[in-house]
Design a protein that fits this description.
It comes from Acorus calamus. The chain is mainly alpha-helical. The chain is 96% helix and 0% strand. The longest helix has 65 residues.
Length: 68
Amino acid sequence: MSANSQDIRYKAGEMKGQADVKKDQIADKASNAAQSCKDSMQNAGEQVKNKAQGAADTVKDTMVMNKK
């Protein structure tokens, strides 16, 4: 095997390694973004649930007051 051939193989391996690292970084960023989105949606869902419960309680209290 010639030195030139070995150099080309070395550089190809090095480029593959760099590409793998970059791929992992992108996958990590995507995973973090997805987790952040999930957390935000859960928080929003809890807020909506709490507001709906408050509204239901207000209606219930109003109905009880009107019966007195």
